[in-house]
Amino acid sequence: MKVLCVPAGADPTSRIGQHARRAEAAEASATAAAVAASKTQHEAVQAQAAQLAAEEAHKTADAATKLIMQRLAGMQQQAANDRGVAEATQHELQQHLAEKDTALQQQRQLEQSWRFRQLEATTRALATLEHLQGKVQALEAAAACYGTAVQQQHDQQHSELEAQRSRLAAWAGTVEELSGMGGRINAALVHMAQQWVAKQQQLRSSDKGMQVLQKQVEQLEQQLSMAVVMERKLQSELADVHAARSKDQAEAAHELQQSAAALAAAEAAATAAQTAATQQQTQLAQLETRVAAAESTSTSLRVQAAAKASELASMNGNVQNALRKLKRMAAAAGDMVGTLERMGGLQPQAVAALLSQLTMLAGSSSPSTACTPVRPGMPPTNGTASSDASYAVQVAADSSGSQQLLDNMGCLQQQMQVLVTATQQLAQDSEYQMLLESWKEVSSVVDKLLHVEESLASNYTCLVCMKVFDHPVSAVPCGHNYCKGCYVGTLGGKCRECPGAETGSCIPALLWSSCVPNLITG
């Protein structure tokens, strides 16, 4: 058993008080260590919360970017479908015009065949007239032969034959007159017939006339006793010839009138067909103009879609740059705060306010507030435009006139206008513009803070004399460092890196509001 020996002269109460003070000191140090550990843990939690906020902002930006890209893809698909409808309509219009041209050619062929039949009828009338002239000439030759035979064989009937010759001479004059009239009519009709057909008909008529003449000469030789009867028959035949000639002239005049009327009707029909063709060409020109306008509108929409895609790409790049800058700023936040506090240019509360503002701007957009443009007048297509395209093609296929084609082109133009309106609504959407402006503001603020970081993280080198100092001798608002002699004597109080301005404007007023009196130090 050990016995605690207390030295003589020592106070036990004082020793107990020392032990108590030591225990209190140890407890205070432990409490301080616990407080420091809790502060460290709180700072770690804050850093983790900032990182989570940055990741959430990045996810939100990716979701908005995907949504806008999907809408742009839908708009491009709609423009492609509308262009296909326009091409199908133009193809059907070309087929319709080809059918019109074919019908017009068939009508012209029918008109030519009708004119050819009229010409053949006129040729047949001319051949009949030539045949009658051959008969008259044959009768005249038969009369001459008859007179010669009577003069040779019957001298006793010389007086009677002379009388008959005088009558025959008068008849010959009448025949010559009729021949003259027939020649004039022939001259008018020959222009409408072909020469070789007339010559062939004339040769055939001559052959037939010679045969008839031979038969008649044989009959005259055999029937000399019936001369008076033959003369009467000749007179009756001459009267029949006159009647037939008059009838042929009337029929020829009637046929000429009918031909003229038919030609006038054909010319009127041709004029009407030309007028209809002109109208069809005018409508085709209008349709081509509208198709060109639709193509130009589609081209402008594709250009706008490409611009939107490039804008989204640039915005995505800005978001990535902003995130990288936020990470750099978070990594260098401690050094920036310490440097600014040493310079007296910024308080820790200001840095905290700026960081909270950045966090708020970075997390201001969410998927629930994404842009959802409305396209009035357009039916739901579930992401595609196949229903509209099929409907337009069906309407174009069922149309039978140019007016319906024009109406279809008007519908297509209205759809293109609705597409343009939807694009403009997407570009003018307030939430979309707010999102874009928020990211621009974030990028601008981060750029300014990083500029401050870069300027404060330098080696405090004078940009004129290139001397290195442990601390900046002269700090101007734009962030450039000069020594006092160079800033006042050489530069005259102006920054060489910012020409034309005595004070820079690239640093926010919040950062330099407290350091204006300390522009020149040292």
Q: Sum up the overall morphology in one term.
A: rod-shaped
Kindly estimate the percentage of residues that lie in beta strands according to DSSP: under 5%
Q: How far is it from the N-terminal to the C-terminal residue, by CA?
A: 74 Å
Average predicted local confidence, pLDDT: 66
Tally of DSSP helical segments: 11
Strand order of the largest sheet: 1-2
Number of beta strands: 2
Radius of gyration: 60 Å
Helix content range: over 70%
Order of helices and strands: HHHHHHHHHEEHH
**Unreliable segments (pLDDT under 50, ≥5 consecutive)?**
1-6, 361-399, 501-522
Given helix and strand content, the structural type is: mainly alpha
How does this structure look, described?
- The chain is mainly α and 522 residues long.
- Among the domains are: 107-282; 459-522.
- Helices cover 79% and strands 1% of the residues.
- It has eleven helices and two strands, in the order H-H-H-H-H-H-H-H-H-E-E-H-H.
- A two-stranded antiparallel ribbon has the order 1-2.
- Helix 1 (12-153) runs antiparallel to helix 2 (158-190), helix 1 (12-153) packs parallel to helix 3 and helix 1 packs parallel to helix 7 (386-398).
- It is rod-shaped, with a radius of gyration of 60 Å.
- Mean pLDDT is 66; it is low at 1-6, 361-399 and 501-522.
